[in-house]
Amino acid sequence: MTARPALTLYLAEPRGFCAGVVRAIEIVEMALSKWGPPVYVRHEIVHNRHVVEDLRSRGAIFVDELDQCPDDRPVIFSAHGVPKSVPGEAERRHLLYVDATCPLVSKVHLEAERHNATGLQIVMIGHAGHPETIGTMGQLPEGEVLLVETAADVARLAPRDPGKLAYITQTTLSVDDTADVVAALRARFPAVQGPHKEDICYATTNRQEAVKAMARRIDALLVVGAPNSSNSKRLVEVGRAAGCRYSMLVESADDIDWRSIEGVRAVGLTAGASAPEVLVERVIDAFRARYDVTVEPVVTAEEDVSFKVPRVLRAVS
């Protein structure tokens, strides 16, 4: 029997589920328990196929829009947040709805509204078409929020009044890339107002810092996450920017390209904020089947954040 090659697996800590994702999943589970299936969910509750399929098997029905929901069943809004028109329509139809928007996304919504109330136009740093960006821009009337994705976009901005601007950001962006965009905004619009505390959430920042800490020690980085997960894709980019040339996103152990990492001796492993730990464990098992694995944690932060679920779910029927 041929001896398996030695490999060190650097395991990022923290990784995987953040408090907002835990809360969102818990909301769907509690709604199914409280009201029974089916419970409707507008958009994927979080961006992870494994999570969505598990909830679907228990009676959650995922839809694109409210008009696909019947009047007599509960509907849940995803963790990414929704435009104001969505709860407005739910109320018009007298739907029972539960908002699973991450509290850190809701904080950005409130910032935008406060700035708008003082006459400022908003610049949002985010990705066009992402549900969080759509939800945040939808908190204010059309034209009140201008979207930029890169520092180059700042040069093309045409605000109403260059002296009356504030910026907000999507919570799942690259910390470093966002800093470049903010610098471009401040250079062109010196009076622009920013958030009191950075909009990029603690979990996004912590997971990116763990990748940076391991990048120089590894030959390859694997990020467990969904292809439509913004924070997971940012982890791949952060790995490459930090010096790890082979930095790849995998949905599961089945997606690992073993030929591409043949001969490596050190692999970094992390997971996006919506990826369950069971998927990480399966990746570790797949490595153990092929290598003599030594697992070495890379700890850069301790997380103890938790968010309460809405009162309607905590109340006894």
Please provide a written account of the structure.
This protein has 317 residues and is an alpha/beta fold. The chain has 3 domains: 6-17 and 202-299, 4-hydroxy-3-methylbut-2-enyl diphosphate reductase, catalytic domain (Cobalt-precorrin-4 Transmethylase, domain 1, 3-Layer(aba) Sandwich), CATH 3.40.1010; 19-102, Rossmann fold (3-Layer(aba) Sandwich); 104-188, 3-Layer(aba) Sandwich (Cobalt-precorrin-4 Transmethylase, domain 1), CATH 3.40.1010.20. It has 11 helices and 12 strands. It has helices spanning 19-35, 49-57, 85-92, 103-117, 131-137, 151-154, 175-188, 202-215, 230-241, 277-288, 311-314; strands at 6-13, 39-42, 60-63, 75-77, 97-99, 121-125, 145-148, 165-169, 220-224, 246-250, 266-271, 292-299. It has a 5-stranded parallel β-sheet, sandwiched between helices. It has a 4-stranded parallel β-sheet with strand order 3-2-4-5, sandwiched between helices. Strands 7-6-8 form a 3-stranded parallel β-sheet, with helices on both faces. Helix 8 packs parallel to helix 9. It is flat. The N and C termini lie far apart (62 Å). The model has no long low-confidence stretch (mean pLDDT 96).
